[in-house]
Design a protein that fits this description.
This protein has helices spanning 13-24, 69-83, 110-114, 135-144, 161-174, 178-190, 227-237, 251-255, 267-278, 285-291, 363-374; strands at residues 4-7, 30-37, 40-48, 64-67, 194-195, 263-265, 296-299, 306-309, 314-315, 329-332, 338-342, 347-353. By secondary structure, it is of the alpha+beta class.
Length: 377
């Protein structure tokens, strides 16, 4: 029988039931889920196993790779610099990163990068496997890359390049890597854990990410000679380990800074970060309104389906709602992890798990979201 740990008051009993169903119905192995209201954790649950052999229980402080939730956390850092007057969203990226001006990108604004409209979801030239661990290799390759489409005319999810692009602006302006900036200005002030570049001392608390590597974008069954297919393929697999496939549980992957993809956290910390956004602790209201206004919506050139973005944050969609608030924003991660803020209710939600599930319309996170909102007045 599944043992569920943590706290869940009677008014959220349906949330606990939904959490259990994720294990019993959808084969969850280990997971944590949290709801933060203001600075108060009103739901904080964890259960299951941190490994496939069921030898290591999932603990209160277990960390796991949360994939694209890192895009939202990286975006917080950039907006923090905007708020301080150090970055102008409408200035060319090359203002802060001069080498970026190469290959016709001299007028691409910071805003286009944050909204997935920069035309840089992938590097065309084949990169060596080692490049995934090298910040200079990835940023130099992106500086050399000509946009795959005219920037600003369309959007396509910058699956793995987003973190390097936004992160290099952060680095050039602040002198800090993304991981360091997160520690100083996001996780540190809130007293939570969100690592981009995981210290080795944390390894014993990290859950293995299981059964990752079998799902590829459906469009990739088309002809490999098609330029669009090459763009999509390279978005995920150039260099080979860019999405973490095959290396996600290695020390080297955990230590690297791949902000779009290898953030490590737990549900409690994710929920607290998004509650901090919902309640004005991390960014002021004007900054948040700007960051969560719609900038991209409709057909996505990479995902092959509709997507909707603000400036670094995913926005709620009818097909994949973040609760009931039209102002909700956050980010989903590969396989089912998610974090989002509901500014109308002052809530932050976080879900972390270690088994790959559907990337789109995941039943596990949807079940939890629906349960939370069914418990609210």
């Amino acid at each position: 029988m599944l043992e569920v740990y943590g706290s869940c008051p009677a008014r959220f009993e349906r949330v606990r039931d939904a959490f259990i169903q994720n294990f019993e119905v959808d084969g969850e192995v280990g997971a944590s889920f949290a709801v933060c209201e203001g600075d108060r954790m009103v739901v904080d649950l964890w259960a299951g196993w941190a490994d496939e052999a069921s030898a290591r229980p999932w603990e209160r402080d277990t960390l796991v790779n949360v994939f694209s939730i890192g895009k939202a956390v990286t975006s917080i850092c950039l907006h923090h610099l905007v708020e301080r007057g150090l970055v102008d969203l409408d200035a060319p990226v090359s203002t802060y990163w001069p080498e970026f001006a190469r290959a016709g990108k001299d007028q691409v604004p910071v805003r286009a990068v944050l909204s997935h409209r920069a035309g840089l979801p992938a590097v065309r030239a084949p990169l060596p496997d080692e490049a995934v661990y090298s910040w200079p290799a990835m940023t130099e390759a992106l500086a050399e890359q000509r946009p795959w489409w005219e920037p600003g005319t369309a959007h396509g999810y910058h699956v793995n390049t987003f973190g390097f692009l936004v992160g290099e602006v952060i680095r050039r302006v602040s002198g800090m890597s993304v991981g360091e900036y997160v520690r100083r200005h996001v996780s540190g002030p809130l007293g939570v854990e969100f690592h981009i570049g995981l210290p080795e001392a944390c390894d014993e608390r990290v859950a293995a990410f299981l059964r990752y590597g079998t799902e590829v974008p459906a469009v990739l069954d088309a002809s490999p000679t098609d330029d669009r297919i090459l763009m999509i393929f390279n978005s995920y697999y150039n260099p080979a380990g860019l999405s973490g496939i095959g290396i996600v549980n290695t020390r080297r992957w955990r230590a690297a800074e791949v902000p779009s993809t290898n953030g490590h956290s737990n549900a409690r910390s994710v929920a607290r970060i998004f509650a901090g956004l919902a309640n004005g602790e991390l960014l002021d209201e004007q900054t948040l309104v700007r960051a969560t206004s719609e900038h991209s919506s409709g057909p996505d050139l990479i995902l092959g389906r509709p997507s909707r973005f603000g400036l670094g944050f995913q926005l709620s969609q009818a097909e994949r709602p973040m609760g009931t608030s039209p102002r909700a924003f956050g980010h989903f991660g590969a396989g089912g992890s998610m974090g989002f803020a509901d500014p109308d209710r002052g809530l932050g939600l976080g879900y972390t798990m270690n088994v790959m599930g559907p990337r789109w319309r995941n039943p596990k996170n949807r079940r939890l979201i629906d349960a939370v909102y069914s418990c609210l007045p």
